[in-house]
Amino acid sequence: MSLRDYRRIVLAEDEPQRALEMSQVLESLGNYEVRTTKYKREVLDLVDQMSAGWLILDLNLEDGNSAELVPRIREEYGEEVIVIVLSGYFEDYPEHSLLSEGVDLYLRKPYSPKAMLMQMESLRARIEGGGVRKQAGVKLKIGEGVYDVDTRTYKVGKKEVRIAKTPSKMIAVLASARDADGWVFVERGQIAIYLWGEDAASDPNYFTSNTRRLRYELKQIFSEDIIEATGQGRWLVPQYKLSSDVKSIEEEQV
Hints:
Blueprint: E1 5-12, H1 16-28, E2 33-37, H2 40-50, E3 52-58, E4 60-61, E5 64-65, H3 69-77, E6 82-87, H4 95-101, E7 105-108, H5 113-128, E8 139-142, E9 145-148, E10 153-156, E11 159-162, H6 165-175, E12 178-179, E13 182-183, E14 186-187, H7 188-196, H8 198-201, H9 204-222, E15 227-230, E16 239-242, E17 247-248, H10 249-253
Parallel strand pairs: 1-2, 1-3, 3-6, 6-7
Antiparallel strand pairs: 4-5, 8-9, 8-17, 9-10, 10-11, 12-13, 14-16, 15-16
């Protein structure tokens, strides 16, 4: 069971007015408890002191670039702390590099604090509803093997393969979407934000090319296409879900 408090946020932002604006939105509209700092040297201590479930991290802090904190957070807390990175320096610090280090959401400046809050509420709803970040113990029967969503490992007999971060996040977000009848479709924008950040949701070409690559990678691992899509026409917004051939272990045992 996680010891993190997902109503508590550490906000690391070097611009005082921006920090004040974000804190007010998060506290008044989101009912979060927010502690702010403009120094990267204080971030880890604040996360520890507050038992914070969220870290909102501007890359350009008063005492230097804070990107180095992301792997340290992951080493210390695993997946328990949700990390959102804010940056106006996309060329110097590309989002795919940070996402591969374990960042959950990458927002490029300028961005709307209210829009960020909506995305946070979506992530928090998944936490409380047993979704993306609460997948401990969830296993999927895929082909001849079993995929563990929490450890990102696929086992067939004695052979074990560890799935890369981004493809595993694709599986996780789709595995969190189900009802009594089985897997349900997830909208493109929701997937894009979770995997690649806010801008990917408004760039269909970026999303399509990267999703095509992910599906190809997963097909090579599982020897079958485990993702179904709908709405692929020119004027239709695609949605995605896990194939009906993918079964949860619980479902298999019923």
